[in-house]
Amino acid sequence: MQRVFLLLLTLLALYVSGFACATTEPLAPDDEKPEPHIALLLPLKSAIFGSAADTVRQGFQAAAIIERQGLPVRVYSSLDEDKDITMLYHQAIGNGARAVVGPLTRSGTSALATEQSFPVPTLALNVAEDPSVSQLYFFGMAAEAEARQVAHLGNQQGLHQAIIIATHTKLSQRLQFAFEEEWNGLGGVILREIEFNGDRTVLADIADMPDTAIFLAADAEKARLICPYLLNKLPIYATSQIFVGNDDSLTNYDLNGIRFVDMPWLLQADHPAVMAYPRADPPLSADRERLYALGIDAFRLIQLLLDNKIHTALPLDGVSGDIQLYGHVFQRVAIPAVLSQGRAQPQSPQTFQAIPIFADHVFSKP
Q1: Pairing assessment for the beta strands 322-326 and 329-333 based on DSSP bridges
Q2: Residue 187 to residues 102, 161, 163, 191: CA-CA distances in angstroms?
Q3: 347 C-beta neighbours (distance < 10 Å), count
Q4: If both were cysteines, with which of 77, 201, 219, 251 could 241 make a disulfide (CB 3.0 to 4.6 Å apart)?
Q5: Where do the H-state alpha helices sit in the chain?
Q6: C-beta neighbour count of 274 within 10 angstroms
Q7: For residue 205, how many other CB atoms are within 10 A of its CB?
Q8: pTM > 0.85
């Protein structure tokens, strides 16, 4: 009996080991024969970006498990993408990479974009200033794109005036600028711009005006401080920054009624693409879940590039949103939702489309 038990354990170990090698392989030594693979270049050794990079890696490899017949994935780790990325890229090509995904940071993407040529399909997980290099594509999570989509959402719901409430953070200011620019472009009027620094008196004279929306360029923590002092009659809009997941019902109750946009991975458990891919175990925070979803869709996009199907398979019904291609930039359309009774409730799909964003993105150095 004991011998049978040991044999079963051995077979299980071999199965798990072989299954892992089908999706992730160690880097090939310089003198080893190059083998075809997909190279995943991430700043896993970085003190700042390492944790986020590892979450992207998990999502990418979760998607690779589904495609068992595809090329194996090799992960190339960097410490500082600004300095390492070009060397790693050429190492991956020399090792036989048929496609490359990465880097993750904006500065790393800008460094890679200075290369004169890209011999294989390359998908950076951010956007460079001049995204027009042949064979180099871009895909990321621009918070500004969500702010612009929210402007369209408010406009489609018949609102023409807006009050913007922002904080002093750089991200909040970027959201404010993106929303304001898009709102003005749609013919809307910005009535006021308020910077909230903890002093609630700046919110005291907000009047109940018809045809007016409030855009909250803030995260969930700041939004919980602001919302009690806003008039309930004015519709409030925000980006995914205010959504911390349906598990945090207390925070969601405090933000009840806010309209926002986010990805199907967090809002639509019954979405066909969402159901097709495994979740991280243990569960991740909402911010990490978005990175995990980015990894899943990055794998799906590089497969389309490898198969030369990018122009026939789009828009892609992705776990991070409906993905379309503008030039060399893959842009996702988020899902509209409203916080109600402690949970995010997806709303009817809107007709707004993805809007290319080439400004600062999520993973940029200070």
Answers
A1: antiparallel
A2: 38, 9, 15, 13
A3: 15
A4: 219
A5: 2-21, 50-66, 81-94, 106-113, 143-156, 170-185, 220-226, 249-254, 264-267, 272-276, 286-306
A6: 20
A7: 8
A8: yes
Q: By CB neighbour count within 10 A (0-12 exposed, 13-18 middle, 19+ buried), where does 59 fall?
A: buried
User: Cβ distance 218 to 210 under 8 Å?
Assistant: no
Backbone Cα Rg of the chain:
22
Whole-number average pLDDT of the chain: 86
Mean pLDDT lowest among 83-97, 173-187, 345-359 = 345-359
pLDDT at 75 over 60: yes
Of the pLDDT bands very low, low, confident and very high (cuts 50, 70, 90), residue 5 is: very low
- Look at residue 343 and give its three-state secondary structure: strand
Indicate the pLDDT class of residue 233, thresholds 50, 70 and 90: confident
**Sequence spans of domains, the chain:** 143-265+334-346
The burial class, CB within 10 Å (0-12 / 13-18 / 19+), for 72 is middle
Give pLDDT, residue 103: 97
Asked if 347 and 336 touch (Cβ cutoff 8 Å), the reply is yes
143-265+334-346 belongs to CATH 3.40.50.2300: yes
Task: Return the amino acid letter for 96.
Answer: G
pLDDT of residue 349: 64
CA dist., res. 90 & res. 72, Å (int):
18
Tens digits of residue pLDDT in 288-331: 999 999 999 999 999 999 999 988 999 999 999 999 998 899 99
One-letter identity of residue 289: E
- Asked if the model's pLDDT at residue 15 lies above 80, the reply is no
Using DSSP bridges, classify how beta strands 73-77 and 37-42 pair: parallel, antiparallel or unpaired.
parallel
What is the structure's pLDDT at 11? 34
Q: In terms of C-beta density within 10 A (0-12 exposed, 13-18 middle, 19 or more buried), how is residue 121 classed?
A: buried
Residue 30 has pLDDT above 50, yes or no: no
How crowded is the C-beta side of 134, counted as CA atoms within 13 Å? 4
